[in-house]
Amino acid sequence: MSKRILAIDTSTEACSVAVLTQDNVYSEFDICPREHNQRVLPMVDKLLAQAQLKLNQIDAIAVGAGPGSFTGVRIATGIVQGLAYGAKLPVAPVSSLAAMAHSAFRQEQSQNIICAIDARMSEIYLGAFQVSKLGQIQQVIGEAVTAPVGALGSLSTDTDWAGVGTGWQTYQSELSAQINAKVSEQVVFPHAIDIAYLAQANENAWVEAEKISPSYLRNEVTWKKLPGKG
Amino acid sequence: MRGKLSLRRSPLVFIKAKTMRILGIETSCDETGIAIYDEDKGILSHQLYSQVKVHADYGGVVPELASRDHVRKTLPLIDKALKEAGCTADDIDAIAYTAGPGLVGALLVGSTVARGLAFAWNKPVVPVHHMEGHLLAPMLEDEVPEFPFIALLVSGGHSLLVEVQNIGEYTVLGESIDDAVGEAFDKTAKLMGLDYPGGPRLAKLAESGRTGIYKFPRPMTDRPGLDFSFSGLKTFAANTLRAEIDEANDENNEQVKADIAYAFQEAAVDTLVIKCKRALKQTGLKRLVIAGGVSANTELRAKLKELMTSLRGQVYYPRLEYCTDNGAMIAYAGLQRFKAGHIDDAAQVHPRWPLEELASVVK
Ligand SMILES: Nc1ncnc2c1ncn2[C@@H]1O[C@H](COP(=O)(O)OP(=O)(O)OP(=O)(O)O)[C@@H](O)[C@H]1O
Ligand SMILES: [Mg+2]
C-alpha cells in the first residue's frame, strides 16, 4: 500500500500544500509572496480535514528543500521540522527543481526538462531531469547556481527539451540561444503535489527531522569576511 | 438543585491544579535559546547555542548566516531541553517564541518551528516580545522586584529606560537617539582590534586600564531628559586612539588601549547611572531592574548598586547567563502572556516592535 504523504513547499513566490493518499490527491496552491508563514498551517489543517486524516496517520512529511528563496525555503523547513518532530514522523526533503520537472511530466507529459529558477543577482538555479513515470526522476546534470549564459553547454541539443521555471522568463533570450526548448506556460513554480509523489517513490531518502537542511546552492556571496580571516 | 450543589462540593476542588509548563524558543539574533519553565519549579532546562564563532570572522552578525545556523540548532536543542526536563508533549501547556524585535529571517526560524510543533501537539502558541523577555529575566531569580519599578534595558540593539507598572504596562521614559550602548561597546572594541562581540572583551581590557588618564564626555547629561546618545563616545574613542596609538612603537600600545577602554566604559556607565538616577527621581520609585546583555557588565552592576544603596532602594538583575539572549526569559514571559490569554497564531514576526504597543496582562 502506498504511503501517505503530507507535502509543503514555500521555496518560491508560490505556497502549496498537498496530501497524497493511496487513492487521492488533495492540494492547495496560491501565489502569495510574503504570506507563506501565515498560509501554510491553515492549508495543512484544511487538507487533512478533507482527507479525513490526523497528522499522525501520515507516513512522512515532504518538504520543498530548495533551491529558491532563502527565507521561503526556511519557512517550509521550520514548519516541517516542527510538525515532524512533534508527530514523530520522518521527513522527505525534495529538490524544488526536481519538483518542477515532475510537474511538467505530470501536467504536460514532458520527459526531458530543464528547470531554471530566477536566483536574482543575474543568476539562475539550474537543473535538468528525465522523468519516465510518476515519481520516477533522474538528474541529467547536477543542480547549480550559475549565470544563464553558457549554463546549458553540456546538454544534448537533439533532445526534445521542455523549459520550466521563472528563469526561462527572466533569461528567455540567454537560455533559448543555447538550446531549443519549449517553454512551459503552465509550470512556473514548484508544486507540493510533485514533492509528495517524489517523496512517496523514494522512501530511502526519508530522514529524521533534525537531519534535514535546506538546499541553498548559493553560499558566501552576499557576505564578506574581515581582512585576514580565512 | 441538589445535583448542582453536590457537584460544586466534589473532591475536585481539593486536587491541586496541575502547574503550568511552557517551552520557550528564542532565535531573534545570534543565539539559539530553548528553555522549559514550570510555574512552580522554575526553569527545568535551559539550552543555549551561541553563534559568536560563526560571526566573529565578519566582525558582526551576518543575518543570512544567523538564520542558517538557527535552522541547524533549534530542533536539536528543543529535543535536548525536553529530555533534560523529562517532559513529553503531554507535560507542555504552550509554546512561546520570540516574535520580535530582531532579524526577520532569524525570527522566522523560531516562529515556524514553534508553530509546526504547536500544530502537531495541538497546543497554543504565544508570541513574545524579546525586550519584555529581557525585562522580566530578573523574575527568574530568588529575589524578585515588586511592581512598579524602573527598568534599564541595555543590549546590543536597545538602550531603554522604562517605567514598569505591571507586565505589559510600560512607559518608555528614555531611549538612545543613535547607537545602543551594547552597539557602542562592540564598535569601540572593533576599533581597538578586539574580536566580535567586543563588549565583554572591552570590559575585560578595561580592567587593566588606569583611572584618570583619559576623560571621555558624558553625552546628553548636561541637559534635562532621559534619552541617550552613544555614538559620540565611539567617535571620541576613535579620535583618542588615532592621537595616542603610535604604530611604530608597539610597547606602550596595549596600556594605551586599556586606558582608553577604561575611560570609555567609565563614561558609558556614568551616563547610564546619571539617567537612572534621574528616572528614579522623576517617578519617585525606589526599585531598579537592569537587564539585557550589557547588564552583565560588572562595573555597571557595581555602580548601580552603589546608587541604589545611596537612595535606600534596591537594584535587581538577572544572573549572568540570563543577561544576554536566552530561552529562559522567553519561556517566563511567555507563561505570563499565556496565563493572561494572550495566545495568537497570526504567524507574524515583527522585526520592529515598540515595547509600548504591548497589552497589559491585568487589564
Ligand atoms: N560585560 C559586558 N560589558 C559590556 N557589554 C556587554 C557585556 N556582555 C555583553 N555585552 C554586550 O551585550 C550585547 C549583547 O546583548 P544581547 O544579547 O542582549 O543583545 P541583542 O540580543 O543582540 O540585542 P537586543 O536584545 O537589543 O535585540 C552586545 O552588544 C555585547 O557586547
Ligand atoms: Mg537581546
Q: Which hetero compounds are present in the coordinates? A: adenosine-5'-triphosphate, magnesium ion
Main sheet: strands, sense, barrel of chain B: 5 strands, mixed
Helix content of chain B: 40-55%
What spatial order of strands do you see in the largest sheet of chain B? 3-2-1-4-5
What name does the CATH topology of the largest domain in chain A carry? Nucleotidyltransferase, domain 5
Structure characterization notes:
The complex is a heterodimer of chains A (230) and B (363). Chain A has 6 helices and 10 strands; from the N terminus they run βββαβαβαββββααβα. Chain A folds into 2 domains: 5-95 and 189-211, ATPase, nucleotide binding domain (Nucleotidyltransferase, domain 5, 2-Layer Sandwich); 108-183, 2-Layer Sandwich (Nucleotidyltransferase, domain 5), CATH 3.30.420.40. Helices cover 28% and strands 27% of the residues of chain A. Chain A has a 5-stranded mixed β-sheet with strand order 3-2-1-4-5, with helices on both faces. In chain A, strands 8-7-6-9-10 form a 5-stranded mixed β-sheet. Chain A starts with a strand and ends in a 29-residue tail after the last helix. With 230 residues, chain A is α/β, with parallel strands linked by helices. In chain A, helix 1 packs across helix 2 (70-87) and helix 3 packs across helix 6 (192-201). Chain B has 363 residues and is of the alpha/beta class. Chain B is 42% helix and 18% strand. A 5-stranded mixed β-sheet of chain B has the order 3-2-1-4-5, sandwiched between helices. Chain B has a 5-stranded mixed β-sheet with strand order 8-7-6-9-10, with helices on both faces. In chain B, a hairpin with a 4-residue loop joins strand 1 (21-26) and strand 2. In chain B, helix 6 (181-191) crosses helix 7 and helix 9 (253-283) runs parallel beside helix 10 (298-310). Chain B is globular, with a radius of gyration of 22 Å. The model of chain B is unreliable at 1-11 (pLDDT under 50). Classes of the chains: A alpha/beta (230), B alpha/beta (363). The A-B interface holds A 37-38, 41, 44-45, 55, 70-71, 74-75, 77-87, 209-210, 213-214, 216, 222-226, 229-230 and B 56-59, 62, 64-65, 67-68, 71-72, 74-76, 78-79, 89, 104-105, 108-109, 111-121, 345-349. The complex binds adenosine-5'-triphosphate and magnesium ion (MG). Adenosine-5'-triphosphate (ATP) is lined by residues 28-29, 102, 130, 134, 155-158, 182-183, 185-186, 197, 199-200, 203, 292-294, 296-297, 324-325 of chain B.
